[in-house]
Design a protein that fits this description.
This protein is of the alpha+beta class. 24% of the residues lie in helices and 25% in strands. The protein is globular and about 65 Å long.
């Protein structure tokens, strides 16, 4: 059968309602763009870059509160030292392959220079996961032009998932992985807030994969679907970006970012020693003007954070699963093949464990 999103298969994890697109772009102003590179000469490349505009392209002058969390730190997310110090995003966010973080980080700087942005310096946030099993990582394939193209191409609306952008060469629970997204809507004290997640999923042993609590990974053996075998606990990495229109300060964004850990655990991630599991959350509700002497802010009461925590966990879990159901089988570097999660088998396993739906 063709590839599909999780809910198109009749599988609806979590309890909170999804937004209309079930994507990070359900948060108004958030835009996502991809640049994908698939070629066999002069090197075998399955790679790319994904860019996120966090709540509008005025981010250069109207900064947004943000916070991050490193669940396991065998990875990279640039700009986090300044983010921890100041708590503000001042530019777009990039996600790419491990050996291309530098060029993407510099490309955001050169993009700002091209636009004539007046910031005195740029310390962009760019994260990575390793695609070297399917792509010749040491060919350093991602270019400044690709990063600029992803920034230019970014739009609201539906988000391409699976083997696109930074997720092109990624593997998740020993099936083809990549980019996935999802969203949740929460209501609290008469107000309605949206939270969206976008992941670059490249981690995990097959036997640990769970779909809405069902041990799907244990039900699909290597005799049925070959895979890159990973012992339990071994893995690569995952990047999770959370966006919300709830009015949060930086420390609240940091707290929210931590809750991506729960969604990752529900899907079967354990934060292995060799895994880079790094999460970032930002809020679009407050604007902090670069040149203003003060900012007038709103802050969600701490007691009202819990529904957002649940939303972060649920959206992260479903975004990972959407990456798996969207991605297609891929052959790459050294003739290696990673197979897609078979959707007919996924549905059959779910039905056997939950015959009533």
């Amino acid at each position: 059968m063709g590839r599909a999103r999780l809910r198109e298969l009749g599988i609806t994890p979590g309890r909170l309602p999804a937004g209309p697109l079930n994507a990070i772009t359900d948060v108004a102003g958030v835009e996502v763009g991809h640049s994908t590179l698939i070629r066999d000469q002069p090197a075998v490349v399955r790679s790319g870059v994904t860019m996120i505009w966090p709540g509008g392209r005025d981010i250069w002058t109207d900064h947004r509160f943000a916070g991050f969390h490193s669940f396991n730190g065998n990875g990279e997310m640039t700009g986090t030292i300044w983010l921890a110090e100041q708590g503000l995003l001042a530019g777009p966010i990039g996600i790419t392959c491990t050996h291309c973080v530098g060029v993407v980080r510099d490309a955001i700087c050169s993009y700002a220079a091209r636009l004539g942005i007046t910031q005195a310096w740029h310390l962009p946030v760019v994260a990575e996961t390793w695609d070297g099993w399917l792509s010749d990582a040491e060919s350093f394939p991602v270019t400044e032009a690709m990063a600029h193209a992803a920034l230019d191409a970014a739009r609201g609306g539906p988000v391409a998932e699976g083997s696109v952008g930074g997720g092109t060469g990624m593997i998740c629970h020993e099936f083809k992985g990549g980019i996935g997204t999802a969203s949740r809507v929460v209501e609290s004290s008469g107000e309605r807030f949206t939270l969206g997640a976008l992941v670059q999923a490249n981690y995990g042993a097959r036997e640990l994969l769970r779909v809405d609590g069902v041990p799907v990974g244990r039900e699909i053996g290597y005799d049925e679907v070959p895979g890159r075998r990973e012992p339990a606990g071994a893995s690569s990495s995952i990047i999770v970006i959370l966006a919300t229109d709830a009015p949060l300060l930086a420390i609240q964004c940091q707290r929210l970012a931590r809750r991506a850990t729960t969604g990752l655990a529900w899907a079967g991630g354990i934060g292995a020693n060799s895994s880079g599991d790094i999460f970032l959350a930002f809020s679009t509700a407050n604007r902090v003007r670069q040149d203003a002497p003060h900012a007038d802010l709103r802050m969600l009461a701490p007691e009202r954070m819990t529904p957002l925590f649940q939303a972060a966990a649920e959206a992260t879990e479903e975004a990972i699963l959407n990456a798996l159901t969207a991605a297609e089988t891929m052959t790459g570097y050294k003739g290696r093949t990673i197979h897609a999660l078979p959707l007919d088998r996924l549905q059959a396993v779910m039905k056997r464990y939950r015959p009533g739906g």
